[in-house]
Amino acid sequence: MEALMQVGGFVLMVRMTYGPVVALLGLLNLRDHRQSRLLGSVMQWFPPREFGGRLAVQVRCALLSPRSVVTLDMRACSREEIWQAVARLSRSLPPGVRVLVDGTIDPQCPAPVTLAIPGRRPLARPSHPSAVTR
Length: 134
Description:
The structure is a single chain. The protein is α+β, with helices and mostly antiparallel strands. It has one domain (2-121). The chain has a 4-stranded mixed β-sheet, covered by helices on one side. The radius of gyration is 23 Å and the shape is rod-shaped. The chain is built from 3 helices and 4 strands.
């Protein structure tokens, strides 16, 4: 019985020591997978033949929430290409993803412009089934 108590104490000590580290590594792994999937879905809209080296994409995902930010650096792109990118991404990204586009709208006035497109919010569901009207 005494040996069982010692083994149980040892197992508890190991769980308390390594458990938070394993949980944190698991959360980081999930965030990295979300970020990779989001980058893949963004890059399908921007073929390399069309944009070449004129486009830079950065994707950041939060660790504990589903919010994400996609940043497009399109300073070398034309105004039409910037608006096409905004139209493509605003329709295709999942809810909770914000898009930031850095670019210049007018070549004669090369002031940088940042467009912030808030993420679509998912449709709110009623809190109780009786709240649904038929």
